[in-house]
Automatic annotation (TrEMBL):
Enzyme Commission number(s) from the entry: 6.3.5.-
Encoding gene per record: gatC
Catalytic reaction annotation: L-glutamyl-tRNA(Gln) + L-glutamine + ATP + H2O = L-glutaminyl-tRNA(Gln) + L-glutamate + ADP + phosphate + H(+); L-aspartyl-tRNA(Asn) + L-glutamine + ATP + H2O = L-asparaginyl-tRNA(Asn) + L-glutamate + ADP + phosphate + 2 H(+)
Source organism: Ornithinicoccus hortensis
Protein name according to UniProt: Aspartyl/glutamyl-tRNA(Asn/Gln) amidotransferase subunit C
Alphabetical list of InterPro entries matching this protein: Asp/Glu-ADT_sf_sub_c, GatC
Amino acid sequence: MSALSRDDVAHVAMLARIQLTDEELDRLAGQLDQIVGWVGQINEVAAADVPPMSHPLPLTNVTRPDEVRPSLTAEQALSGAPVAEEQRFGVPRILDEE
């Protein structure tokens, strides 16, 4: 007998906004109970000295640190633009709204 009842599955389906037939509720009750059992087995195997992780390999950030460097002024950046308005690039309007 499944530890998860048909009503439990119906409640989870309602929370997930999934419509299930009566046959699907009966079938999924057993399947979800098996999944919960497998997760329980994994929890038994997990050792206290193994830290939780989201990825099996260690990940490191490969971005460079931010450093202030000389850059273009607004006038230099806009010097090649066909249209500039208020220190910004002017582009054609795509919406008719104001």
